[in-house]
Specification:
about 15% strand, two-stranded antiparallel sheet, single chain
């Protein structure tokens, strides 16, 4: 079954499918097939859609597909993503062009509002300055006040810039590039930030209630082929999706599809066994992996004491980052870190060489001290 996650700063009904859909790869299909893809996605529980880099020909068939079920779906539109007369995607900081594009998007989709209005592709401080000085940010604020934009968000590839935008307290959602190559410093020019910088950003989003929608989960398809993978070894789509979903703050992953067949393959993710989603193989890929740190893959399972080792590590890391809710979540667990009897099973299985038995003792002591 499809899993759903709630937007922290959202209404009760703002609950998103963990498997979303990006429109960036489907524009070469016929309008008939595009409509079929959207209808099938919704019928199978997908309710979150991102329009970044979708062609002009995507909007009208998408609008037809959601007639009578607008309230079932959540749409992410980008203020700065524009299209030329041939329908090709580009980007702009021109306020009039952005206003005209948004009006055209609403009309083409047959809707009166978007759930998310995103500051588009904010990768440098200069990008943010341009969006502010051109009036785009103020325009988004006006639209939110009018109810035409329910939430303001942004897309970025740069942790330092993302932190600066979150500091404004204006945003509820961030779209960020997350995959093992980027997170372990083996990506391209978009894999910006050190291992620790990226991890701290995701933990901050969890702590501050900023939801994350994930772009580039497959590193542009490079991770799916050992010939193009920066690790020299490939991962599957399901491994990449699960990896992204396990990062703190992530609500949904929005891979693109090229056609109905691609969608059908993606939809099998929800029913796939845990073994097909196990991404722990990245622990043995290369020396650059940040060994000694838990990445919550749960390859150490099953624990004889029935401890959810990955989840407890996540709550610990989040609590250290200042997330008080993580401490509350830990306290509600029926089986905590102090249940560990140091059998060593997890230590022998951890692909990242974490001494989990010692870490359980450390975590148990931390929460014991924290609560006193």
């Amino acid at each position: 079954m499809m899993e759903y996650r709630k937007l922290p700063h959202g209404e009760e009904n703002e609950v998103f499918s963990t498997l979303g859909l990006g429109m960036g790869g489907i524009q070469k299909c016929s309008e008939v097939e595009i409509e079929k893809v959207i209808r099938k996605a919704i019928d199978h529980g997908i309710n979150f859609f991102d329009f970044c880099a979708g062609g002009r020909n995507v909007y009208v068939p998408f609008g037809r597909a959601i007639v009578g079920q607008r309230e079932k779906v959540f749409l992410q539109l980008h203020f700065g993503a524009v299209y030329n007369s041939q329908g090709d995607y580009g980007w702009s900081r021109n306020l009039k062009q952005i206003k005209d594009t948004f009006q055209w998007e609403l009309e083409s989709l047959g809707i009166h509002y978007t759930d998310f209005g995103f500051l588009h592709c904010v990768d440098t401080e200069n990008d943010l300055d341009e969006l502010i000085t051109s009036g785009v940010l103020d325009y988004l604020k006006e639209l939110k006040a009018e109810g035409k934009v329910r939430h303001i968000g942004f897309s970025s590839h740069t942790p330092a810039v993302a932190n600066g935008i979150i500091d404004t307290c204006l945003v509820d959602m961030m779209m960020f590039s997350i995959n093992p190559a980027y997170d372990f410093e083996k990506g391209d020019e978009y894999g910006i930030g050190s291992i620790s910088e990226r991890a701290q950003l995701f933990r901050r989003c969890e702590r501050d209630g900023i939801g994350i929608s994930v772009m580039k989960p497959f590193h542009g398809g490079q991770l799916l082929d050992e010939k193009s993978s920066p690790f020299g070894k490939s991962l599957t789509r399901y491994q990449c999706i699960q990896y992204a979903l396990d990062r703190p703050g992530v609500l949904t992953v929005v891979p693109g599809v090229r056609n109905l067949m691609d969608l059908e393959q993606l939809l099998e993710f929800s029913e796939a066994p845990a073994s097909e989603k196990d991404y722990s193989a990245i622990g043995g890929f290369m020396e650059i992996i940040d060994t000694g740190n838990c990445v919550y893959c749960n390859h150490c399972q099953p624990c004889p004491a029935k401890i959810d080792i990955g989840l407890i590590n996540k709550y610990y890391d989040l609590s250290l980052a200042g997330d008080k809710m993580a401490t509350n979540h830990y306290e509600k667990l029926n089986i905590k870190a102090d249940a560990c009897f140091e059998c060593g099973h997890c230590d022998s299985r951890c692909p990242f060489h974490v001494s989990q038995s010692a870490r359980m003792k450390e975590i148990a002591e931390y929460f014991k001290t924290y609560n006193h």
